[in-house]
Structure prediction request, 366 residues.
Amino acid sequence: MLRVTAFPAREGDCLAIEYGDASNPFRILIDGGRAQTYQDYLKPWLAKIPPEQRRLDLFVITHIDRDHIDGALKLAQDSDFALHVCDVWFNGWYHLSGNRPPGPQIAVLAPRAGEALTKAIMARGWAWNEAFDRGAIAIGDASPPVTKALPGGANIRLLSPDMAKLAALEAVWERECRRAGLLPGGGRVLGPRQQQLARPETIETLQALADRKTDVDSGLPNGTSIAFILEYDGRKILFAADAHPDRLLASLRAHYGSEPLRLDLLKVPHHGSRANVTKMLCQSLDVCAALISTNGDMFGHPDAEAVARLALTQRDPGRIHFNYSSKTTKFWGELSNLRLDVSYPKPDEQGWCVLEFCEDGTVQRL
Prediction:
């Protein structure tokens, strides 16, 4: 079996991958969404796993934005909840300059969420970046493509970050944490970005959106995102986090060559931001299905340009799965003249999206 679950995380990400024997699958957790995501959704989901099987074979915290890290921090700090974690992938302060963190017996101050997570990982005694000899999870400047084997026959091909993008964050760690809303003592939520919603009523207007020149993401925290392709049982799934499109493109070519890469599922970068879902990136992919995780709060994602690029650059456009039916997502299903293949949660399942990969090669939403 192979299953991907998106949890209700508002504008953020919290994803689980299960693969292998359905009675006792291997599990990967990617990010934790908001703090409430852990308490209301992720913890109850984990609690349903029999205690003797309650483990994460890999726990990936992609970067320090609060809509990814807050719930992960709550999980790591919940020492009363028994959970075995085989390895945590997270680039903390030490890794930005290519160093290794000290042993878990050394206390670390926690003025910011990234450092608070460092402290919590150490306190739990979880293995940290063991697959990378406790060093940075990153692509070297001149090193060959990085592939890591996982238990149960799965492989991960690392796409992001590189050491240059990690190093760029070092001098501005505190400032960028503040920009992400990660202030000491609980912090505040920064104000939303209002999006001018565009309703493309014709193929021509949809094409104009796809072709529109837009800025490309250069945010330092997003550039440090851990992004990868999971390969299992002949399937390929790209988990893009908030990674920069230039880094993704370079890594895709290094791993697979220049032809469009067939993907069974694309977890769309940065919740469908036009600055990350570039036309060039979309043209490098051949996507069977896409997953967009956001309710549109804070930043108005997904951007119409990003959805248009996904819809128009694919030779055989697959279904776009939204985990929320919201102001920024639901109108795509109302544009019947464009015949877009979109999927939404049921009214009582807002925020959830569970995708099962079937033996006949299809992806079914449960």
About this structure: The radius of gyration is 19 Å. The CA atoms of residues 118 and 223 lie 20 Å apart.
